[in-house]
Design brief:
- α1 packs parallel to α2, α1 packs parallel to α9 and α2 crosses α3.
- By secondary structure, this protein is of the alpha/beta class.
- It is about 40% helix and about 15% strand.
- The chain contains nine helices and eight strands.
- The longest helix has 18 residues.
- α7 links the parallel β7 and β8.
């Protein structure tokens, strides 16, 4: 599975809304190794309130678990921890270190080097992210979401408009669930990123598998 395929269904962690201990929740979200049992294709570790020691420890455990499943691990903000645990990517936002600085620390895009992602919320940020060296962006919030109640949804049509202007993958985030996934994908999203739609439920394993089936089916039907 190449880098782009590994971004097709990203679970962004939030242990504060998880119904289960985080490592257990992630394990269930990863699913099995056969068709129909597979879950998310990537895990983004996003636990902003953890200190460096605890975050590193959690990242190391998740690296072991995700590697066993052939799933990508992305670390939010912390380039140092991403490099230390051998993560597949680091994800930055408006309050992170500059994209150019992260790109210089990691090095130019190359096989085996971590991806650099960026959280964009409009066309301007998407274009700046690509110019700054991002390998992909998440675009949010597409739909109404409990994670960021104050943010106004930008709508699924924004995905298509951004895709027409940037050449890097665009991952839809915000209010993504089994009812909205097809609409986001139909507007040419390269992948989906979710938080509460998976991790906030006791049947999170089944929810991850259901979303994976939707994603795999859409890309298969479209020859991608």
């Amino acid at each position: 599975m190449d880098h782009l395929q590994r971004l097709r269904l990203i679970l962004i962690t939030d242990r504060n809304v998880s119904c289960l201990p985080l490592l257990r929740a992630v394990g269930l979200a990863l699913g099995g190794d056969t068709d129909g049992d597979r879950g998310v294709t990537a895990v983004q570790l996003r636990e902003k309130d953890l200190d460096s020691k605890d975050l590193f420890s959690l990242a190391r455990e998740l690296r072991e678990t995700t590697s066993q499943h052939g799933v990508a691990l992305i670390i939010n903000d912390r380039v140092d921890i991403a490099l230390a645990v051998g993560a597949d990517g680091v994800h930055l936002g408006r309050h992170s270190m500059p994209l150019v600085t992260a790109r210089n620390l990691i090095g130019p895009p190359a096989s085996g080097k971590p991806l650099v992602g960026f959280s964009a919320h409009n066309m301007k940020e998407a274009l700046e992210a690509e110019e700054g060296g991002a390998d992909y962006i998440t675009l949010s919030p597409i739909f109404p979401t409990h994670s960021k109640k104050g943010d106004i949804p930008i709508g699924s049509g924004t995905i298509l408009r951004v895709k027409e202007r940037v050449g890097i993958p665009v991952i839809a985030l915000g209010g993504i669930n089994r009812d909205t996934a097809a609409e986001a994908l139909g507007n040419k999203a390269d992948g989906l990123a979710v938080i509460s739609a998976i991790i906030a439920h006791h049947d999170l394993g089944a929810r991850a598998q259901n979303l994976r089936k939707i994603v795999d089916s859409w890309f298969s039907q479209n020859g991608l």
